[in-house]
Structure formats: structure tokens, C-alpha cells
Amino acid sequence: MTELNGTDTAAPLFTYDEAVNWINGLIPFGIRPGLERIEGLMSMLGNPHQRLKFIHVAGTNGKGSTCAFLTSVLLQAGYDVGTFTSPYITKFTNRFQYNGEDIPEETLLKFSNRLHPLVQEMASTPLGSPTMFEVSTALALLYYAEECYPDVVVWETGLGGRMDVTNIVTPVVSIITNIGMDHTDVLGDTIEAIAREKAGIIKPGVPVVTCATQPEAVKVIQETAERLRSTVYLAGDRFSYHRLDSDENGQSFHFTGPFRDLDVRIRMQGIHQCGNAAGALMALELLRQYMAFMLEDEDIALGLENTFWAGRFEKVVEQPRIVLDGAHNPEGAETLAKSIIEVYPHNKLILMMGMLANKHHEAYLQHILPLVDTLILTEPDFRRKMDAAELLQLVERVRPSIAKQELEIIVEPEWAKALDLLKSRTEAEDLGVVSGTLYLIADVRAALLHQTDSEKGW
């Protein structure tokens, strides 16, 4: 038994599946903003997070891509890198990576058994049970501090920033990718309120890089940084970028920073990815200039060019052409629409979409619906899904003013059947796009790539 679970005979979890089921079993405790439970867990474990260097990444869109750019360059430069991201696309272990590889299943099991009694102990106190994301965060910190010892951890927020569980760390640099209308039920329903939550990751004296554009968001970030005596590196102010060219194989842009200029090529598509790459590059420049990180020009160029992030404007099938994109809020839809027009000339656009409840779907539709010839409405296989029939009501409400007159709408709640429809409707000169929540993208991607071990989830 010791061999199985990596702890002792009293360990309650015997397999990887049991460990994942236990962690996911904490989902009903929901998202509970606040740091008391994670601080309690870290205290019980000897505060492992205090032994690590972090790059903390917050923002509405582009967090995952930014983390991917950072990880790729640092790995190319020879550093050992931990990467903690969510949600995952294929497998629960995706969220805990070391040097681009998932945490081994037996290691996840070992640390789950370490956390299990502590979680039960805390559940019996007034603090209540730690949530799934809190336990996942604690597990990541244990993994990096006690198992693999990375030089730096690329650390993505779960939700918001100020009260997000990941905010227990003090990073060497913070990044706020951008600010948009998402998770308004938790973060507030104005750009200013959301910016205040995201700006909560700014720490005293720690530089912050941001590509935020709205004046009210920039004002909040700058005021927060000033109060904490942190330097803000704002796109369009301390650094800038402009695109040089773009084609189906990628794009290049010119980066102008406070220390030097660089021409960079990336394979990831869409103008928004130039912004994500530029923000990551500015953060890397700070590590290089002020924190003695050895980052050669060639490693920066290769690392950025080779960056890949699944499900973000990703062409997964050539015949018929099918692109997956996890755009699920208005800003994401606007970016997706621009990218479709720019990157993939097509005859007809067949769009399959599935959403979660509580999002800004009408504003999302305003951006994408004008391009669509056939719309297939479906449902993600997830507990907080929006019914396809309900989504249809939203579409019918906005359709008269923005959609093509001949728009065809198909409602197919089962995503697998909807995918078959998408494939059969997308002809040689057409473009098929699957968009919406990453929970849908994860299932569709696994089906198209014939992946049998997909677990997908939050």
C-alpha cells in the first residue's frame, strides 16, 4: 500500500482517479473569494510558497497565452519552470506543469494524501472546507516547493486577483493582461470595479506590466501601483508594439521597450496574441534587466515563435477547416471576429457555440453573429451550462438588427451530434469555428484529435 499511494498505510486515497475525484468533489463548495483558507493550509504545511519565485498573471483574456509565452521563452533559455494554469483542456494534471510536462499521476496522488487530513481538519472549523481551487493551488505550491524546485513559477490567477487564492504569493513581477466584462457576478459590473479586483495582485515594490487600454482601468492600476510604490509598465507608454506582417503560419511585430527594440515572430494567430506576447516580453525584459536572468536574444525569439496554447484560435482540422477558440466574453468575441476575417478567407462561416450561464452572451453575439452563415447552438457537458433553447432566445432577440438575412440556425443540445453537423456542413471553401466556454472546446478538441484520456474541467 505504501508503494501505491506514496505516503503510509493510513492514506485514504489509493489511486490517481480517487485523488482527482476527491479534489473535484470539493466543487460544490464553489468559488469563495478570500485568502483565509489557503493561508491556513500554507501555515499547516510550513509556508512552502515563500521559497519560490513567481510571475503572477491576471487579466480578463489572454492569461493562458501569456503564461505560455513566458514558459516557452524561459524553458528555451535553460531555466526550470513551473506553470500553474486553469482551466485545463485535456487532463487534470495539465494545470500543474514543470518544464512543459504534467505532474506525474503518482505525485499528484502523494500530495493529495498529504492535503486530505488538513482539508478535513479545516472543514470542521468555522472557516469551512477549502474549495477545489484552493486545494489545487495548495497542491501546486507543494509540488513546486518540495518536489521539483523550479527557478521560477508562472502563476495564473483563477478569478479576479485581489481575493483570488493565488494572491497568497509575492511575485518578482506581476502582469495584468487586459480588463474586460467577465465574471461580473463576482468581480463587479463596471470596468473600474473589475480593474480594482485585477489590480489586487500588485504588491509593494513589485513591478507590474499591463496591456489594459480603458482609461478608467489604467487609472485604477496606476493609482494602486503608486500607493504601493510599484512601477507600472503600460503598453503604449513604457513599451509598445506594432504588427509587421501576418499570414496563416503566424505573424511578426516590432517591440519597442525601455531597454531596447526587438523584431519578434509568433505562430499564434490574431492581433491580440501580439499584445499577449508583447506583455510577456516586457516582463521578461524586467527579469533580464533587474533580476539577473540570462535571456539571450536567440532564446527569446525561438521561445516566442514556438509558443503554442491549445484551444486559442487553433486550427485542428484541415479537411474541413475547423478552428477552435475559447472566446466566451464580449472582448473575446470581438477579437475572434477580427481574427477570422484577417486570417481565414472563406465562403461561408459555420459557427458552433456552447456557453455557460451568467455570461454577457448578448454582447458576445453582437460581435460574432454578423459574420455567421450557419449557427449551431449546443450545450457544454458541464454543470453550469446554458440550455441551447435559452441561447436561441438570446440569438432571436439580437438577430433582426445584426445577423445576415439568410442566417440558418440549428439547435442541437448534444455537443457530439452538433460537431457532426458542423463537419458535414463545412465545405471545402468554408470555415468551421467552435467557440464558447473552454469546457466545450476541451471535449470537441479531444474528439477531433481522437484523444481518449481527456478529462477536461475547471
Blueprint of the fold:
Blueprint: H1 2-5, H2 16-24, H3 36-44, E1 54-58, H4 63-76, E2 81-84, E3 96-98, E4 101-102, H5 105-123, H6 132-148, E5 152-156, E6 173-176, H7 184-187, H8 191-198, E7 208-210, H9 215-227, E8 232-234, E9 240-247, E10 250-256, E11 261-266, H10 271-290, H11 297-305, E12 314-317, E13 322-325, H12 330-343, E14 349-354, H13 361-368, E15 374-379, H14 388-402, E16 408-414, H15 415-425, E17 431-436, H16 438-448
Parallel strand pairs: 1-5, 1-6, 2-5, 6-7, 7-8, 13-17, 14-15, 14-17, 15-16
Antiparallel strand pairs: 2-3, 3-4, 9-10, 10-11, 12-13
Description:
The structure is a single chain. With 458 residues, this protein is of the alpha/beta class. The chain is 40% helix and 18% strand. It contains 16 helices and 17 strands. It has an 8-stranded mixed β-sheet, sandwiched between helices. Strands 12-13-17-14-15-16 form a 6-stranded mixed β-sheet, sandwiched between helices. Strands 9-10-11 form a 3-stranded antiparallel β-sheet. β9 and β10 (250-256) form a beta hairpin. The protein is globular. The model is unreliable at 1-9 (pLDDT under 50).
Secondary structure class reads alpha/beta
Strand order of the largest sheet: 4-3-2-5-1-6-7-8
Shape: globular
Q: Which whole number gives the mean pLDDT?
A: 92
Radius of gyration: 22 Å
Give the terminus-to-terminus CA distance.
30 Å
Summary, kept brief:
The protein is built from 16 helices and 17 strands. It has helices spanning 2-5, 16-24, 36-44, 63-76, 105-123, 132-148, 184-187, 191-198, 215-227, 271-290, 297-305, 330-343, 361-368, 388-402, 415-425, 438-448; strands at residues 54-58, 81-84, 96-98, 101-102, 152-156, 173-176, 208-210, 232-234, 240-247, 250-256, 261-266, 314-317, 322-325, 349-354, 374-379, 408-414, 431-436.
